[in-house]
Amino acid sequence: MRVDLHCHSTASDGTDTPAELVRNAAAAGLDVVALTDHDTTRGHAEAVAALPQGLTLVTGAELSCRIDGVSMHMLAYLFDPEEPALLAERELVRDDRVPRARGMVARLNELGVPVTWEQVARIAGEGSVGRPHVATALVELGVVPTVSAAFTEEWLADGGRAYVAKHETDPFEAIRLVKGAGGVTVFAHPGASKRGRTVPESAIAELAAAGLDGIEVDHMDHDAETRARLRGLAADLGLLVTGSSDYHGSRKTCVLGEYTTDPEVYGEITRRATGAFPVPGTGGA
């Protein structure tokens, strides 16, 4: 069984529609795929409708959080998307994305970059606008060669020249809200140091004590040494270990199934969840 628990669609900052994502996941030989768009569940219905036979969909979201001034992402799986408290928090984060992106455009203009809001809005389409869309605009303009190259202090990384903060959830509150909605929480790419500052292990221990279920260890932004360190930390803290591609379609170089989650860990995630259940494919359009 091949399980990829972290993928994005055009509902946030991926380039595959939800329907294309599940079809591509099946073509890549996956048995289970999670749709975890940023702060939204808007793509779930389309993914379910298109789900090919033999592929199971795990519904989820990647929640924007911040702890002690450090940005972090929390993967939330199999929660009730209509639970009022978590829904309200997701909407608060999502609604702050547009003014934040407009602010980044303004800062880039001040730096002499001729990016426009219309360009960023076109790239985002119906998705939840974010830094990757601004980064794609910089690629289009020839300012940087790749989306990843825009996430530096020179441009869009945390604290960078064109960075603008947005509302982000306290991760302890995120854990409480996701648990209240029957979901399971996994700290996404906790050792991705090239993205900026990372959360210290002492804080991860505090999150584990507060109910965090797992950490994403096998990820393209973790080298072998980081994966080994995080695997040991997970063992010490009693956390589940997941692996995922963090697939964004053509916006990033990672491919579906590049890293996967142990089927036993996937089974434990489904056992812990009470807000929603994995959806088996029946041969969608």
Determine the number of helices (DSSP H or I, runs of at least 4 residues). 10
**Largest sheet descriptor:** 8 strands, mixed
Helix content: 25-40%
Order of helices and strands: EHEHEEHHHHHEHEHEHE
Q: How far apart lie the N and C ends? A: 23 Å
Q: List unreliable stretches of 5+ residues.
A: none
How is this structure best described in words?
The chain has 285 residues and is α/β, with parallel strands linked by helices. The protein is 36% helix and 15% strand. It contains ten helices and eight strands. Strands 1, 2, 3, 4, 5, 6, 7 and 8 form an eight-stranded mixed beta sheet that branches. Strand 3 and strand 4 form a beta hairpin. The longest helix is centred in the middle third of the chain and has 14 residues. It is globular and about 50 Å long. The mean pLDDT is 95.
Descriptive tags:
alpha/beta; 8-stranded mixed beta sheet; 8 strands; globular
In short:
36% of the residues lie in helices and 15% in strands.
